[in-house]
C-alpha cells in the first residue's frame, strides 16, 4: 500500500470511530479522534451548537444509540496534503435526522486528530 493510501486508510479508521461512537451512544469509542483543543460548530434543527470534544462526548452519551434507527455513516476523504486533511462524514437516520459533518484533521507527531468540525443538520 502506498503512503498516500495508508494515510487515507488511517484517516478513515479514525473517522469510523466517531461514527461507531454515535451508533452505540458510547463516546469512549471515539477516544483519540478529536484533539483536546478541537472547535466544533454547527446547526441542529435550526439551533446553533458550539462546543468542544467534551461537550460532543456528553451529547453522544446522552442520546439513544443510533443503531436503534439504523444509523449509517459515509466517510469521504476530500483531500490530504502533507500533515493536513479534510473529510466529509454523512450521518443518515440518526433518530430521524441526517447530518453532514466536515472534519479538518492535523497530523502531529505521527498521529492524526480532528482539530475542527463544522456540521449541519435539518
Describe this structure in words.
By secondary structure, the chain is α+β, with helices and mostly antiparallel strands. It has one domain (3-32, 39-120): Roll (Nuclear Transport Factor 2, Chain: A), CATH 3.10.450.50. It is built from two helices and six strands; from the N terminus they run H-E-E-H-E-E-E-E. The chain has a six-stranded mixed sheet, with helices on one face. Strand 4 (84-94) and strand 5 form a beta hairpin. The longest helix is centred in the first third of the chain and has 22 residues, at 3-24.
Number of domains as seen in the coordinates: 1
Q: Tell me, what's the shape? A: globular
Beta percentage is over 45%
Oligomeric category: single chain
Distance between the terminal alpha carbons, to the nearest Å?
39 Å
Biggest β-sheet: strands ordered side by side in the sheet: 2-1-6-5-4-3
Continuous helix count: 2
What is the helical fraction, as a range of percent?
25-40%
The helix/strand order is HEEHEEEE
List how many beta strands DSSP finds: 6
Low-confidence stretches: none
Report the top-level CATH class: Alpha Beta
Radius of gyration equals 14 Å
* Gross CATH architecture: Roll
Structural class: alpha+beta
Summarize model confidence as the mean pLDDT: 95
CATH topology: Nuclear Transport Factor 2, Chain: A
In this structure, how is the largest beta sheet organized?
A: 6 strands, mixed
Amino acid at each position: 500500500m502506498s503512503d498516500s493510501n495508508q494515510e487515507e486508510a488511517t484517516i478513515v479508521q479514525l473517522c469510523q470511530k466517531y461514527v461507531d461512537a454515535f451508533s452505540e451512544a458510547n463516546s469512549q469509542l471515539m477516544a483519540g479522534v478529536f484533539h483536546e483543543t478541537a472547535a466544533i460548530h454547527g446547526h441542529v434543527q435550526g439551533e446553533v451548537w458550539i462546543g468542544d470534544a467534551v461537550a460532543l462526548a456528553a451529547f453522544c452519551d446522552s442520546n439513544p444509540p443510533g443503531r436503534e434507527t439504523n444509523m449509517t455513516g459515509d466517510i469521504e476523504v476530500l483531500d490530504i496534503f502533507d500533515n493536513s486533511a479534510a473529510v466529509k462524514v454523512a450521518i443518515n437516520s440518526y433518530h430521524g435526522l441526517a447530518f453532514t459533518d466536515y472534519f479538518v484533521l492535523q497530523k502531529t507527531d505521527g498521529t492524526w486528530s480532528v482539530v475542527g468540525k463544522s456540521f449541519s443538520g435539518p
